[in-house]
Amino acid sequence: MKAENAPLFDAIVRIDRLPASGRDLKVSLDEPTRAELAQLLKISAVERFEANLVVAPLRGGLRAQGRLEARIVQPSVVSFEPVAQDIDEPVDRVFLPEPTDRKPTPGSEIFVDLEDDDFPDHIDGPEVDLSALLIETLALAIDPYPRLGGESVESLGVNLKDEEPSPFAALAKLKKEKDPEA
Asked: Global pTM?
């Protein structure tokens, strides 16, 4: 049984032991770990999960670049039939230590450009857990409204164009059937 804060799988990189040329990190999850990941993401199954990253030192931190490939199964939002989705996502993230020499003074303004693609994640300590990055990348790539090809609400026979009549409209319809002059 895993501790509450323990990573789901091992993808921890120590910055102080990282060679200057960087190193390759390959992650391929086994069946029990993929089942735990599916439960964490609230989907039916994770059939495949593989990541190939190049981790290189960068300004006292590190940069992780590579690809995440996965195959997931989740229920269709229309018919609840299983829908498989192949995921192939690029991974490019920078992790830097928090600057110690530039602590903001109370009341000072801090400019943070959230539109910047290279906005680094801050780390505190000699290790970076890339498992959280990979799980986040997978979670963001999942289709929030999966459905089978050609499947729609109309294909189930549901007519969304007509407004639902009020109870008074149903009574008016009954009255017209009894008394056509009304």
From this structure: 0.72
